[in-house]
């Protein structure tokens, strides 16, 4: 049997820790709900210019307790997912780590908009490019995300030839979350300048 440490016993004896965590996650839910509504308002004038399958009325907030053993909460909005084709903007709160927003393109959306998005974001400070072969990793270790402006055109092209998706992402420290909502929205709007049908 594993021995309990003093730290573990002290934590388990103090209900305030989990109560604070519960309250924090409620506030993160509210933050993402408000973000969704602010995005929706920004998208109304664009609704006839965006791909028709991209739902700009409804978003999905989901949460879990165990992304690499830590709690998280995710807003997918706007987003369209099928097994083959993905066009999604995902905002993620990851406990102890960051708040992030990510463009994820796969299938026909990668073919249609991928290279234009690369050019759009190439010189932006703080935009990361996913170099992993899995689209479902969200940490910012160097085997997953690399600043896009540090990659050569050949490295990006190699990724496009060998991997069937691309992701662009920005992140901020959790303590900056209350003042970064507009930055997350601006990142989306900048990308959507490329993802328009007319």
TrEMBL record:
This is Uncharacterized protein. It comes from Marivirga salinarum. The lineage of its organism: Bacteria, Pseudomonadati, Bacteroidota, Cytophagia, Cytophagales.
